[in-house]
Amino acid sequence: MDDYGQASRSVTSEISTDELGLVDGNVYAIKIFNAEREVEGSSFKLGVTGLDATVSTCTPSP
Predict the structure, then answer these.
(1) Is residue 45, in this structure, part of any structural domain at all?
(2) CB within 8 A of 15, min separation 6: which ones?
């Protein structure tokens, strides 16, 4: 815990894209669940590395 009574945790995945069936160039959703216990503000931080940060444009499908 830090000086404010907050806990810090990290998770690292060593699973390969082949094991997950992911294909380079495809788009995938990442779903994260977070439950805040504070009435105001948030201390949640998410860091993801190794992703393409290129901005994309979404358009509706017919």
Answers:
(1) no
(2) none
